[in-house]
Structure formats: C-alpha cells, structure tokens
Write a structure and sequence with these properties.
With 130 residues, the protein is mainly alpha-helical. The protein is elongated and about 45 Å long. It has a domain at 41-130. The chain has helices at residues 7-26, 40-58, 63-85, 94-110, 118-125. It starts with 6 loop residues before the first helix and ends in a 5-residue tail after the last helix.
Length: 130
Amino acid sequence: MRELKLKTLWWAMAWALLAFVFIASLIPMPTPPVQLPEGFDKYEHIAAYGSMSFYFGQLFSRFTLHLRYAVALFCMGALLEVLQGLTWYRSPDLYDLAANSVGVVLGLLLCLTPLKSLVATLDAKLKPVR
C-alpha cells in the first residue's frame, strides 16, 4: 500500500465509488430524456469500471495488488449482473460484463503510465485538516 497522509480520505472515496456503482447498477433505470444510441450504455460500463480499476490502482504501489483488485472488480461486475437478473426491472447482459472487463483492463493499463502516481502526488500537495 502506498504511504499516503490522507489515507482515510482516499479510501473513503474508493468505497464511495464502489457504493455508487453498486447502487446505480441495481436501482430502476429512469427513461432518459434523450434517446441514446444503441449500445451507448457499454461506454458507461467501461468508464465506471475503468475509473474504479484505475483509482484502486492508485492506492497500491505493487502491480500484483492491482491485479487482485482487478479480479475483485470483475467479480463485482458478475455479481451485479446476477443480481440484476433477480429484479423485475433490470436484466443481466453478458455484453455489460464484457464492457466491465474492458474497463478494468484499461484502468490497469493506466496504472502502468506516469498517471499511476496521481493520488500520491495530490496527497503530497494537500495538507491534513486537524
């Protein structure tokens, strides 16, 4: 795990991101005010899971830990698809699971770039509130 001064803040944000995706995946979907192109939701899946994968990768310095979180995020996506199938207002979709997986991989790949230290850089610049 990276040494971060504001570790509680960064982890709270991580759990909030997970909770947001979990809740958004299980609540009834309102009818959008604008008709979106067919398959547009796959980009939303890629963005959501890519963001989570990249963000969790920021919290750890070892890539092996990034891989563990990637597997956990994939499992979360699979679980959410199963849970959606248990509701009367959502339906599971293997293409959603595939889009989630693409997002997780893209987030991992971003952790191999200079952006991998984004949270650590922000953490170093911010001062803890006491």
